[in-house]
Amino acid sequence: MVAGETSGDLLAGLLLGGMRARWPALSSSGIGGPRMAAHGFEALWPYEKLAVHGFNLEVLRRFREIWGIREQLAARLLQSRPDVFIGVDAPDFNLGLEARLKAAGIKTVHFVSPSIWAWRGGRINKIHRSVDHMLCLFPFEPRLYQDKGIAASYVGHPLADTIPLVVPREAARAKLGLPADAPVVAVLPGSRGGEIRHIAPVFLQTVSRLNQLRPDLRFVLPVVPGMRGLIDPMVAEHAPHATSLTLLDGQSHEALAACDVTLIASGTATLEAALFKRPMVIAYKISALSWPIMKRMAYLPWVGLPNILLSDFVVPERLQHEANPEQLATDVLAWLDQPARVQSVQQRFLELHHTLRRDTARAASDAIAQVLESR
Question: How many CB atoms within 10 Å of residue 251?
């Protein structure tokens, strides 16, 4: 297995739990993180080695290292010939590796469909060469693959199984030491170093502005493991007087459960926020070089997963120059001051939650079993 970032480690860990229940003697190794390791996974490299952001100098600087890791892993797998290889998201890394393994007769499964419906649709030809079976998180995706002769299964989203339909907000606040009656804003600036560097400064400037406008607000910022050294200096620079800001060691789910609204970077975390039924302001910033490239590749008017899945601008999205402290603060306060709007979006998120609940670990394990039987 290969997972390339925090969200992939989370998804892979949930999948491994289901696989180990089905195959107690399961042996798994590759690239991953702590949630995978909790299920006996042997990480030959940590997933942080693969985490890059956008199309920029960071990618170019890391290319040789990442390419070398993929070559070493490919050589190891071609020699050991596992029963199946499962690439978890990280398509830029995994699809090329999967193509080599599939050509050598090793069965390949890809967990999390690349967003061919949102951008880079031509990638489906590469998927055809690389993947024996695609595990899809969203109900509309399998048809796209089956029309192209690629086996695919809708397995639901594992987060929809693990996040409760009714969120225990009071318990989460008690665990985080937050007052029961104070308005709370969760600030989630991403999980990778590159995106944190682009997004966290403006998020912290927004915290500082909101702190001045509404001194009663409390803020929680979950810090991804290993990123404290990056976040702390940013807090000192961009929100030095925001005494109501609390940095958490991880605990993003507790933060989402406890909050009234979240200021959040576009990505898997926005779906988590929707499953927690939390109104949100989605923002994203990348380098000036990357932005026009990604904008030209986009097919849909939305970038946030909740909006994509509901085919509507249910929550605001602020990208690039629109992601500024003044606009973001205005958007956050609009949620806090419009309870009827909050109730409406929470109902839509509840309906989405029901749609995505499918006992993903079991459904995915069933699909993987079919792949193994076809060897």
Answer: 16
**Integer-rounded Cα radius of gyration of the chain:** 21
Residue closest to 347 by CA, chosen among 281, 277, 282? 277
Let me know how long the chain is: 375
Assigned architecture for domain 169-356:
3-Layer(aba) Sandwich (3.40)
Rounded Cα distance between 282 and 304, Å, is 7
Structure-token match 């071609």, residue found: 78
From the list 207, 268, 260, the residue with the least C-alpha distance to 4 is: 268
| C-alpha to C-alpha distance for 98 and 22, rounded to whole angstroms | 24
DSSP label at 200? H
Residue 219 Ramachandran class (φ > 0 left, ψ -120 to 50 alpha, else beta): beta
- Same topology between domain 2-156+358-373 and domain 169-356: yes
Q: Retrieve residue 336's tokens.
A: 């806090």
Global confidence as pTM: 0.77
Q: Cα separation of 142 and 116, whole Å?
A: 12
Query: Strands 261-265 and 29-32: what pairing?
Result: unpaired
Burial of 22 (0-12, 13-18, 19+ CB in 10 A): middle
Q: 257 with 172: CB under 8 angstroms?
A: yes
Domain coordinates in residue numbering, the chain: 2-156+358-373, 169-356
pLDDT means per 10 residues in the chain (375 residues)?
90 92 96 96 92 56 86 97 96 95 98 77 88 93 91 92 92 96 96 87 97 96 92 95 93 97 93 97 76 54 86 92 95 97 97 93 94 90
Rounded to whole angstroms, the Cα distance separating 4 from 11 reads: 11
Element (H, E) at 153: strand 152-154
Q: CB count, 10 Å around CB of 62?
A: 16
DSSP 216: T
**Domain 2-156+358-373 adopts which CATH fold?**
Rossmann fold (3.40.50)
